[in-house]
Amino acid sequence: MTQLREVLTSRKDEILAHQKQGNVITISEEISGQFHDLLTHIEQRDEKIDQIRSVVRDVFELQERDLVVFLNGKIVIRLFCPPQEGQRCERRFEGLPPEELEALKVKIFKNDETVVGELAVIVDSLMENELNFSRISNEWFSANYLKILQSAIHEWVGRFVKPDSGVKEPFGNYILRQHWKLIHEKMAQRIVDLLIDKDPNAMTFIKFYSGDVVMGVDKRRWRLPEIIDTENKKWNYSTILAIALQKRKNLDALKARDQVVREIQKSIAECDESIRKIEQERESLEAEREALLQEAATTETFISELEAALASLRSKLKASEGEARTELQKEINEKMILIKRTTIKEDEIYNQQKRLDAQFKLSESKIQKTQHLKNSYIKKLREENEKTAQLIKSQQDVDQKYEIMIAAVAKALTKKKVPV
C-alpha cells in the first residue's frame, strides 16, 4: 500500500489540475492500471479494490459521504456537495460523469434496442404486480411508483456490474432518466387499454387527473393534476376513451387486413410448393422417358440384327439338305420366336412411352393451371396491400391524436396534487 500511496501522492496535483470537474475527480485508466499492477500479489479482487479505495480516500482526504467508484477502468471520486447558494454541484447519477455511464451502457448492451426491450419486460412485469392499475390508487402510485421503478431497474443492471463498484444505483438511474418518457408512455398505454376494457379502477384512476380543487382529509384544499397535451388541449376520461376506442377499432381493422394478406401469402406458398412437386415428378418422368428411348433403340437394333440373321439363315436353307437343313430350320424357328417376343416387348415400350407422354402433358397442364392460380393470388395480394396502405393513410389523423394523448397521460403520471 505504501507504493500505491506514493504513486497517487506524486500525481495528486496533476489529477486535481486536469481531472477535476465540479465535485467529480477522475483518476485515469493509466493510473488505475498502475495500482492494479502494484497489487498483482493479491489474488482476491475484492481485497485489491478495498486497498485501492482505502488509499484513494486517504490521499485525497475524503469524507465519509464522498464516493469512490470504479467505472470503465477508471476511478471516479464524487465529493459530497451540500446545497449552497452559488455553488455548482453535479447531483444526477450520484455525480458520476454521464459520458462514462453512457460508455458503460454501450459496453454492456451494445445498442439501445436491447435496453428498450429489457425495460419493456421490466415495466410489463411491474404493471402485472406492484403497479397494477386495476388495483392501485393515484395516491399510492404517486407515493411509491418511482422507488419501485428504481428498485427494479437497479436489480436488473446489478446483473451486469460488480457489486462493489458503486455503479449500480447511478447507472440504473441514468438508464431510467434516458428512457423516462418511454417508461411513462408504456404505463399510460396500459391505463388506456384498461379503459377500453371498462376496468373500473382504471376509470377512477384517470378521472383523478381533472385539475379540480378538492378538500383533503386534512381539511386542506388541493388542486389535482390534469392531462394537458403539447397543444395545450385538456384531455379527460371521455375524450381519452373516444380516441382510444377509435385507435382500437383501427388496429382491429389492420389485423383483419393482415390476416387476409397472410392467407393469400399462404396460398401463394402452397402454389409454389405444388409447382415444385410437379416439376420433381416431371424430372422423374423425363428420366424414365429417356431410359425407355434408350431401351427402344436397343430393342430396334436387336430386331434388325435378328431379321438380318434370319434372312441369312433362310438363304442357307435353300442350299441345304438332310440333317443340316433340319438344324437350319430349327434355328430359323428360334429366331422367329425371339423376333416375335422382342416385337411384343417393343410394343410394350411404345405403350409405356405413350403413357409417359400423356403424364408429361398432364403435368404441364397442372403447372399452367397452378401458375395461373398463383398469378391470381399475386394480383389479389397486390390489391390487398394497396387497400392496407390506404387504410393506414386514413388512420394517420387518429394515430397522431392517440400519440399526443398518450404523451399527455404519461406526463400527467409524473405530477402530484398541490396545495391551494
Explain what this protein looks like in three dimensions.
The structure is a single chain. The chain is α+β, with helices and mostly antiparallel strands and 420 residues long. The mean pLDDT is 86. Helix 6 (138-157) crosses helix 7 and helix 10 runs antiparallel to helix 11. It is elongated and about 140 Å long. It contains twelve helices and nine strands.
Descriptors:
single chain; 420 residues; alpha+beta; four-stranded antiparallel β-sheet; three-stranded antiparallel β-sheet; 71% helix; 7% strand
Question: In terms of topology, how is this protein built?
Answer:
Blueprint: H1 2-18, E1 20-21, E2 24-27, H2 29-38, H3 45-59, E3 67-71, E4 74-78, H4 98-109, H5 112-128, H6 138-157, H7 168-178, H8 180-196, H9 200-207, E5 213-215, E6 221-223, E7 227-228, E8 234-235, H10 237-318, H11 322-394, H12 396-413, E9 418-419
Antiparallel strand pairs: 1-2, 2-4, 3-4, 5-6, 6-9, 7-8
Radius of gyration: 43 Å
Counting DSSP E segments of at least 2 residues, the number of strands comes to 9
Low-pLDDT stretches: none
Mean pLDDT: 86
Structural class: alpha+beta
Major sheet details:
4 strands, antiparallel
In DSSP terms, counting alpha (H) and pi (I) runs of 4 or more, how many helices?
A: 12
Cα-to-Cα separation, first versus last residue = 60 Å
Spell the H/E element sequence: HEEHHEEHHHHHHEEEEHHHE
Shape: elongated
Strand % is: 5-15%
The strands making up the biggest β-sheet line up spatially as 1-2-4-3
Which range best describes the helical content: under 10%, 10-25%, 25-40%, 40-55%, 55-70% or over 70%? over 70%
